[in-house]
Amino acid sequence: MAADKDRAAYDRYLGMQRPITRRDFLNGMALAIGATLLPKHALGESSTLEAQDRPGYYPPTLTGMRGSQPGSFEVAHSLRDGTFWQSAGEARDTGESYDLVVVGGGISGLAAAHFFRERAGGSARILILENHDDFGGHARRNEFHLGGRLQLMNGGTMLIDSPTPYSAQADGLLKKLGIDPPRLAARCDDPRLYRSLGLGPAVFFDKETFGEDRLVAGEPAGDWRGGGKNSLTWKEFLARTPLAPQVQRDIERIQQGKIDYLPGLTSAQKKDRLSRISYRDFLLTVVKADPGVIPFYQTRTNGEWGVGIDAEPALDCWALGLPGFQGMSLEPGAAPRMSYTAAGYANGGSYRFHFPDGNATIARLLVRDLIPAAVPGLTAEDAVTAKVDYHRLDHSGSPVRLRLNSTVVRARNLPDAASAREVEVTYASGKQVFTVRGKNCVLACWNMLIPYLVPELPEKQKQALHYLVKVPLVYTSVGIRNWTSFHKLGISSVRAPSAYWMDVSLNWPVNIGEYKTSARPEEPMLLFLSRTPCKPGLPARQQQIAGRYELLSTSFETFERAIRDQLARTLRGGGFDPARDIQAITVNRWPHGYGYEYNPLFDPEWPEAERPNVIGRQRCGRIAIANTDSAATAYTDQAIDQAWRAVGELMGKA
Ligand SMILES: Cc1cc2nc3c(=O)[nH]c(=O)nc-3n(C[C@H](O)[C@H](O)[C@H](O)COP(=O)(O)OP(=O)(O)OC[C@H]3O[C@@H](n4cnc5c(N)ncnc54)[C@H](O)[C@@H]3O)c2cc1C
Asked: Does any ligand 1 atom lie closer than 6 A to the CB of residue 444?
C-alpha cells in the first residue's frame, strides 16, 4: 500500500498524468476504417474513404508509439503463425494491373521504382505497397511544432554514412535527387553551436549499476554532436565518477596506455587473435582489467550493431575506434574475419550528412521524383520543410501510386515460376484482402517474411531468408520546453552506459533551407534517446530475437515512465522538471531494425555464394528481391544498390 502511494507520488512528480501529445490518434482511426470501410480502389475512385486520403492525414506529426506502430504488423505476424488465411475473407480482385508492383515503401522499394521507371520510361505503371501508415520504412520523419516552431528528428535511419563509399548507382541517385552530401555538410551542419555555448559530452552513472546516480560532464572523448571544450583529462574525469580507484586506474590505462598486450605477434597475427575474442574478453583476459570496467564500456557497440561488447569481436571494436589498442602497432586497414561495418570503416567509410529528419528526406525526394504532385518544391533543401500531400500518393491519374496501410500477404508467379508472365500480389488492408497484378514484382520488404509471401520458393532459399534476423532498437524523440538545464550543466549529450536509455542528446544542429535549428537554450528543443534491448551473454542472434520480444511487449506507458525517470535523474542538477518540461514523446519502436550483418564471432565463414543473403535474394520467376537484408547490412547505399540489382535481374543488365 505504502509502495503504491510512493509510486503514485513519484508518477505525479514525473508528470505521468500530464496531457502531453503522446497518443497515436491516427492509428485508432485507421483501425476503425479498416473494420468498417472499404478502400477506394474497391469502391471507385470518387471515394475518399481510404485512410491516407482523409483530410488531415499527416503521419509525421503523430506522437506516441511509432516506428512499427500498432496496426502495422499484426497481419504479418498472423501470416507467420499460419492463422492469417483461416480468418481472411476471399481476396477481391481490384482489376488493377501494373508494369511493376513493389512490396515495401522504404528507400529500397522507392529506389527500385525509380530505377525501373528510368529504364521502362515515364509511362510505366508502378504500384508500391507499404504496411505502415507512412512511407520511408526505417527512414521515418518525426515532425513537431513546439512553441509554434517546426522541429524535426529522425525516427529511424539517421544519416547518410556508410562503411563503404556510395557506389556509382547510389551516389548517382542522390545526385539525381539533388543531394550532394559534402556540399550540404559544408553549408548546413552547425557543429560549433553547442561547443560555442560551452556544452560537451557527459556520462550518467545510474545507482542501480554504480551505487549512486551521478552525472559527470567533460568526458574526454568528444562525440559527433560536438563538445570537448570543457573536456577534462581522463584522470580528472574519472576522479569525479563513482568508480572504484582500481577501476579508474584501469580505464585510464585502457584509454591512454601504450601497451602491447600481445607482444611477439605480427600485426596480422594480432588481428586474427582479436577477431576471435569479444572486446569484453579482450579487456578482461588480454588487458587484464578489473571487471569493474565492463559496465563503463558494455554498451559502446550497441549503437552500431545492437549488441554490447560481450558479442562483438575485439578487432571490430579496434576498427570503430574503441580504446586499448594504442600500443599494439596494428597496421591500418581491413583484415580477414572482420564484419562488413568494421572492414569498411577500417578503410575509410563514405561521406556523411544528416538531414534534420535523417534519411527520411531521401525518401521524400524519391517520392517527389516518382509522384511530383505529392511533394511540392524543387530542391533537396526545400524538401525538408515541404508538406507532403498524402492524398496524392495513390491517385489513379498518376502512373506511380503508393498505397499505405497495406500488408502484402502473397506474391505468386502466374502461371508458375518457370514460365511466369506476371505476378499476382495479394495484400490486406484493414479487414479486407485484395489482389493486383504486375508484369514484375520487387520484394523490397523485410527478407525474413518472404518465405511466407512466396511459398513456392525452394526450401534452401527459405532457410537462408529465415537466417536474416533483424536487429531491434528504439529511437525516441522527446520535445522539451527549453534546454536551459543542459546549458546550466554544460552538456550536449549524455552517455548512460547501464541505464534504460543508453544515449540522451540534444538534437543535431543543422540549418537547411527554411529550417533553423534551436540555437538558444530558452527555446524548445527535441531530445534524442536510444535503447537497444539486447540480452548480454547470449549469442548475437539470440539477443536480437529476445530483444524483439521485449520491444513488442513493452507498453508505451513503460517507455514513458523510463524517459521521465531517466531525464529527471540525469538533469536534476540543471533544474529540469519532468512534469513541466516534457511536452511531447514519440517512441519509434523497431523490433525489426537494422538488417542482419554477419558477426565473425558467431557466423561461419561462408564463401560469397553460400552466404544466406545471397542464397536468399535469388530471383523467382518475375519476382526479384531487394532491401538491405539482401546485402546483409543496414545502410542506405546498400538499400539503393540492392534495388538496382533487383531491377537489373528483372529487366536485364543496364
Ligand atoms: C533505427 C535505425 C537507424 C538507422 N540508421 C541508419 C543510418 O544512420 N544510416 C544508414 O545508412 N542506415 C541506417 N539504418 C539502416 C536502414 O535500415 C537503411 O539505411 C534503409 O533505410 C533501409 O531501407 P530498406 O528499404 O532496405 O528497408 P526498410 O526501410 O526497412 O523498408 C522496408 C519496408 O517494407 C515494409 N514491409 C515489410 N513487409 C511488408 C509487407 N509484407 N507488405 C508491405 N510492406 C512491407 C516495411 O514495413 C518497411 O517499411 C538504420 C536503421 C534503423 C532501424
From this structure: yes
Q: What does residue 126 show for φ and ψ, rounded to 5 degrees?
A: -135, 135
Asked whether 449 lines ligand 1 (CB < 6 A), one says yes
Could you tell me if the CB of 370 is within 6 A of ligand 1? no
3-state secondary structure of 576: coil
Question: Residue 169 pLDDT more than 70?
Answer: yes
The whole-chain average pLDDT of the chain stands at 93
Instruction: Tell me the three state secondary structure of residue 272.
Output: helix
Residues sharing a CB contact under 8 Å with residue 222, sequence separation 6 or more, in sequence order: 200, 201, 228, 231
Smallest CA separation from ligand 1 atom 5, residue: 157
Quick: pLDDT tens for 61-117. Answer: 999 999 999 999 999 999 999 999 998 889 999 999 999 999 999 999 999 999 999
The amino acid that residue 599 corresponds to is N
Rounded average pLDDT over 322-348: 97
What residues pair up with 145 in beta bridges, in sequence order?
150
Q: Determine the distance separating the centroid of ligand 1 and the alpha carbon of 359, expressed in angstroms.
A: 10
SS3 content of the chain, % helix, strand, coil (to 5): 40, 20, 40
- The verdict on the CB of residue 593 being under 6 Å from ligand 1 is yes
**Residue 475 beta carbon below 6 angstroms from any ligand 1 atom:** yes
Asked whether residue 245 carries a pLDDT value surpassing 80, the answer given is yes
The Cα–Cα gap between 480 and 491 comes to 15
Residue 30, pLDDT > 60, answer: no
Give buried/exposed letters for 556-568 (b at 16+ CB in 10 A, else e). beebbbbbbbbbb
Question: Cα(179)–Cα(254) distance, rounded to whole angstroms?
Answer: 40
| pLDDT 10s digits, 469-479 | 999 999 999 99
Whether the pTM exceeds 0.90: the reply is yes
37 pLDDT more than 90: no
Q: Is 526 in the pocket of ligand 1 (CB under 6 A)?
A: no
Spatial distance between the Cα atoms of 54 and 26, rounded to a whole number of angstroms:
10
Tell how far the Cα of 227 is from the centroid of ligand 1, in angstroms: 30
Angle at 338 between CA 548 and CA 317, to 5 degrees: 70
What DSSP line would sit under 350-419, residue for residue? ---B--TTTTHHHHHHHHHHH-GGGS--SSHHHHTT----GGGTT-TTSSEEEE-S-EEEEEEEES-STT
Q: Above 80 in pLDDT, residue 22?
A: no
Pair 200, 215: CB distance under 8 Å: no
The residue written with cell numbers 522499394 in the block is 109
